[in-house]
């Protein structure tokens, strides 16, 4: 086997020295890495057309949707926390705190729903793309800490 490898290497080296690779199409241009080597060749054209039209596989669209819904829920929670921090020391403190309690309950329910969707999504997504569940308590702590800084 080594004799074949060295013979092949020798032939390639000789061809390079003779300039046989100098006028190949695409020489000096970056390699196109957009093609997925694991993609079924029969579906490559269909996938390219869908990508160029702004579509992605269903499991990617679902993940984007989950992330967008989490961002909306987190922003709503952050707004209510801002109201609570602004109401401190005023007559609106108690109603703001009650609103915060209600907002955290709603947020936790939303996170439970999203975690259910994540578990279902993990069954559809290819290996290595699975997503961890969302920790509502951590996000609530982060929202509160961000307001302090």
Question: Would you mind describing this structure in some detail?
Answer:
The protein is mainly α and 149 residues long. It has a domain at 58-148. Helices cover 67% and strands 0% of the residues. The chain has helices at residues 2-17, 44-52, 58-87, 93-124, 136-148. The longest helix has 32 residues, at 93-124. The protein is elongated, with a radius of gyration of 27 Å.
**Unreliable sequence segments:** none
Spatial separation of the terminal alpha carbons: 66 Å
Structural class: mainly alpha
Overall form: elongated
Strand content: under 5%
Please state the average pLDDT score. 87
Helix proportion range: 55-70%
List keywords for this structure.
mainly alpha
Describe the SSE topology.
Blueprint: H1 2-17, H2 44-52, H3 58-87, H4 93-124, H5 136-148
Helix pairs in contact: 3-4, 3-5
What's this, in brief?
This protein is mainly alpha-helical.
């Amino acid at each position: 086997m080594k004799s074949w490898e060295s013979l092949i290497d020798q032939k390639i080296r000789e061809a390079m020295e003779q300039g046989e690779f100098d006028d190949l199409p695409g020489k000096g241009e970056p390699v196109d890495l957009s093609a997925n080597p694991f993609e079924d060749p029969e579906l490559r054209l269909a996938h390219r057309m869908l990508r160029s039209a702004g579509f992605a596989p269903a499991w990617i669209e679902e993940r984007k949707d989950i992330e967008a819904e989490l961002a909306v829920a987190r922003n709503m929670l952050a707004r209510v926390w801002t109201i609570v921090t602004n109401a401190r020391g005023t007559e609106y403190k108690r109603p703001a705190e009650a609103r915060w309690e209600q907002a955290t309950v709603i947020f936790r329910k939303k996170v439970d729903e999203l975690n259910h969707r994540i578990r279902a999504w993990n069954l559809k997504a290819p290996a290595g793309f699975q997503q961890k569940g969302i920790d509502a308590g951590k996000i609530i702590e982060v929202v509160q800490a961000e307001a302090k800084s």
